[in-house]
Design goal:
Length: about 300
């Protein structure tokens, strides 16, 4: 080692804003050159940050100088950076580097929230976040026991999202995949742990944008799928936009319209209970959901069981 630089509260250009027991530094991940200044940047988790509520967690995006000091920063939490949907005890902080997943030229980030309570007590979650060059969040998707198209079985206290690793296109389908650790998984015995390999072909759909040469991603997930009584549709908007979400049958006939209004940037969800425009239950079979927003279109096949 030829030199060192410590980044801490009020040191090396980092602001004097950390609170007692924030646990800044609980996880770190390189971001590549997010701001295109020729220098790599850094994501740092603050495990017990209390922005917006107790122990919700936070991530600091640090833009670094060549000597390791901080020239600028952006915090991602319940109150900063356009992150929405965190609850008390989520522990949103377990950072994992991602490449440019959505094809916009900016590196992205996965963040585990191992205390998330979707589906049960502290089952955990993993957020896939699409970043702007200033470190703020323009969109993303939550993967948990009840969201993001995840069909595995998580138990209480599994702490899914404790760790993560980008696998690249592991199954050769053109979409990158992600490994996620569940530190306290009890399969086979108390707290033995587990790793889930997530094949993300059903999470991100890449579609061409009129007038551009490169695609953008529209995060759009359906869960559960197949379903019997109700399915949830989740999507993220980079900008405020008019949104239409429609259901079609296998012959291309419109069954119902779930959303037809303007919506703000951020995460949104709605449900379908397998009924048509008049509230009449439709038959079992294959249906298609089409999302139109922000000049883009994404579609998902849905299977309704009876």
């Amino acid at each position: 080692m030829k030199a060192h630089k410590k980044i801490a509260n009020g040191r090396a250009g980092f602001p004097d804003t950390l609170d007692v027991e924030d646990l800044f530094g609980h996880a770190v991940a390189p971001l590549g050159d997010l701001d295109d200044d020729g220098l790599p940047d850094l994501a740092v988790g603050a495990f017990l940050d209390d922005d917006g509520g107790t122990d919700r967690g936070a991530v600091w995006i640090l833009f670094l100088n060549s000597n390791g000091t901080v020239k600028a920063h952006q915090k991602l939490s319940s109150t900063e950076g356009s992150v929405r949907g965190l609850d008390d005890g989520d522990l949103f902080s377990r950072v994992t580097s991602l490449p440019d997943v959505d094809g916009d030229g900016v590196e992205d980030l996965a963040v585990g929230a191992p205390g998330d309570d979707d589906g049960g007590d502290r089952r955990g979650a993993m957020w896939v976040l699409f970043l702007n060059t200033d470190g703020t969040v323009k969109g993303g998707l939550k993967i948990s026991d009840t969201r993001g198209g995840f069909t595995g079985v998580l138990d209480d206290e599994d702490r899914f999202g404790w760790s993560g690793a980008w696998l690249g296109d592991h199954d050769g389908d053109g979409h990158g995949d992600l490994a996620v650790g569940a530190l306290f998984d009890g399969d086979g015995g108390f707290e033995r742990g587990a790793v889930w390999v997530l094949f993300l072909n059903d999470v991100l759909e890449f579609v061409a944008v009129p007038g551009t040469a490169s695609p953008r991603a529209m995060p759009f997930a359906v869960s559960p799928n197949p379903f019997r009584s109700q399915s949830t549709f989740e999507y993220a908007l980079s900008n405020a936009s008019a949104v239409r979400l429609l259901i079609f049958d296998a012959r291309g006939r419109r069954v119902t319209t779930l959303v037809d209004r303007g919506q703000a940037a951020g995460f949104h969800s709605t449900t379908w209970s397998g009924r048509d425009e008049n509230g009449v239950p439709v038959g079992a079979g294959i249906y298609f959901a089409r999302l139109e927003a922000d000049g883009r279109t994404a579609a998902r096949k849905i299977v309704l069981l009876k």
